[in-house]
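> example.struct
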């Protein structure tokens, strides 16, 4: 009986024109592969309400592994809210979120996640070194590994000379760079970066993007928010949020093509107008 079914699946069932036969087994396998595909992030109707106010409304997103997703949108659009839910810091009011196929909340995924908050969460009286070491210890890293990572990250944020300075002595942009390094100390597979390049000078911003692409090549998935449209062009996909709703999602080129616009800025304005008129 079972073999009969298997045999049926392996038989060519029909042909399409003069082309190759379509094997039911292959179709079935393709369908199963699609159903089983594990995304780095998947959200289904993810919603967050603060009292009667809806900050995030039925967000549906699928982010493949090793992709860079940029979340864009005006102040108050819901970008930080979405990120906080995905990091497990905020409880959604509705819908579901999956990280690497695991439904949130799930503590086992926390070591795989790195989070750089919009407001830097550093110990100002501690040195750059002690801040990095503190975050490494939270993740149970050995002293040796923390030291290695510290060297790499200080070089990346170009603050080697500031290693022993209290963070309070650093400029705003420098603090931001330390915060970025702290979020990556434990080599997470998924990075949430809330405005990682705000206040960072143009030269360093360019080097950050080189580094993000290097991380991507190593298989790391990055979700970041930005208000810089030129940066959004570097993302594999972007999600445009407005008033808590995802009004467009896709590769930057796809979005400008779909809206028949010359830039993402224009695309965003056109999509916002459509929303208002609808
Ligand atoms: N704890 C909270 N209680 C009440 N309202 C909140 C809370 N957190 C966020 N909000 C509201 O939710 C909305 C979305 O905020 P969010 O911080 O997600 O926006 P954002 O897109 O990150 O904006 P920005 O670009 O300014 O960082 C805003 O209107 C904000 O006032
Ligand atoms: Mg924000």
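> example.seq
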């Amino acid at each position: 009986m079972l073999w009969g079914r298997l045999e049926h699946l392996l038989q060519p069932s029909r042909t399409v024109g003069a082309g190759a036969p379509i094997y039911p087994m292959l179709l079935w396998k393709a369908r199963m592969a699609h159903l089983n595909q594990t995304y780095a992030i998947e959200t289904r109707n993810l919603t967050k309400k603060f009292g009667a106010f809806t900050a995030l409304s039925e967000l549906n997103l699928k982010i493949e592994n090793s992709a860079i997703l940029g979340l864009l949108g005006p102040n108050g659009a819901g970008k930080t809210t979405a990120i906080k839910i995905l990091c497990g810091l905020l409880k959604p009011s509705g819908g579901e979120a999956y990280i690497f196929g695991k439904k949130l909340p799930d503590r086992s995924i926390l070591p795989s996640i790195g989070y750089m908050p919009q407001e830097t969460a550093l110990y100002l009286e501690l040195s750059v070194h002690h801040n990095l070491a503190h975050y490494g210890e939270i993740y149970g890293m050995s002293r040796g590994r923390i030291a290695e990572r510290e060297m790499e990250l200080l070089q990346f944020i170009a603050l080697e000379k500031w290693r022993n300075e209290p963070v309070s002595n650093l400029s705003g942009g420098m603090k931001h760079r330390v915060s970025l390094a702290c979020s990556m100390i434990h080599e997470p597979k998924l990075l949430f970066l809330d405005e990682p390049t705000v206040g960072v000078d143009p030269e360093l911003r360019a080097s950050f993007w080189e580094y993000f692409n290097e991380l991507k090549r190593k298989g790391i998935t990055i979700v970041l928010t930005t208000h810089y449209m030129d940066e959004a062009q570097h993302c594999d996909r972007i999600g445009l949020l407005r008033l808590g709703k995802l009004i467009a999602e896709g590769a930057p080129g796809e979005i400008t093509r779909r809206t028949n616009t010359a830039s993402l800025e224009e695309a965003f304005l056109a999509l916002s107008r459509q929303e208002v008129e609808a």
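> remarks
Residues 50, 55, 73, 75-81, 118 surround adenosine-5'-triphosphate (ligand 1) (CB under 6 Å).
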